[in-house]
Amino acid sequence: MKKSILTISLLLLTTISCCQENEDTPCDFYVSAGLSMTNSFDTTFSYSSYPSIEVGFMKNNFSLGAVFGRASLSGFNADRASNYWYELKTAISFPIEKMNAYGLLGIGNYFSTNRIFIEYGLGFSYSVNNFSMFGQASNWDGTWYITPGIGYTFPHKKK
User: CB atoms < 10 A from the CB of 56, how many?
Assistant: First the structure.
């Protein structure tokens, strides 16, 4: 697990330094929060909803982010490290009218296991100034989820 976290950290730091070297198209850093929900299980909303926070950068139509989340909204009173997961996610977007469509691909793991999962899917986002709203459908660890969320893009400094 430590190797995975170190690898993700080094990749993000390398990417950040590469972004800052090319001033023609600066990087935009962002943070977002989402709630992935599925109806694949015969269970409660709190058990089948996965909250997450993502931090990353965007350059042109490409984004790379680190995502951290919890396996469900239930069971906080008996919390364990195995309830939490991390993921390295990338997306490519393209504009459609006033919105952006994007395809995503991610790879992740739960903090106390060696079980790697893959996420892939499609989404749409709409931005007003530095704030955005998004909705995506993705297959995450073999289960389909719908994820609404919000985000904020930090404006880059102009020299």
Answer: 23
Give me the CATH number covering residue 126. Answer: 2.40.160.20
Greatest alpha-carbon span in the chain: 55
- The predicted-structure confidence for 34-49, as pLDDT tens digits, reads as follows 999 988 766 788 888 8
CA separation for the pair 11, 20 (Å, rounded): 14
What is the value of pTM for the model shown?
A: 0.80
Task: State the Cα–Cα distance between residues 33 and 86, nearest whole angstrom.
Answer: 14
Q: Is residue 116 part of a domain?
A: yes
Query: Is the residue at 95 inside a domain?
Result: yes
Residue 74 burial (C-beta neighbours within 10 Å; 0-12, 13-18, 19+): middle
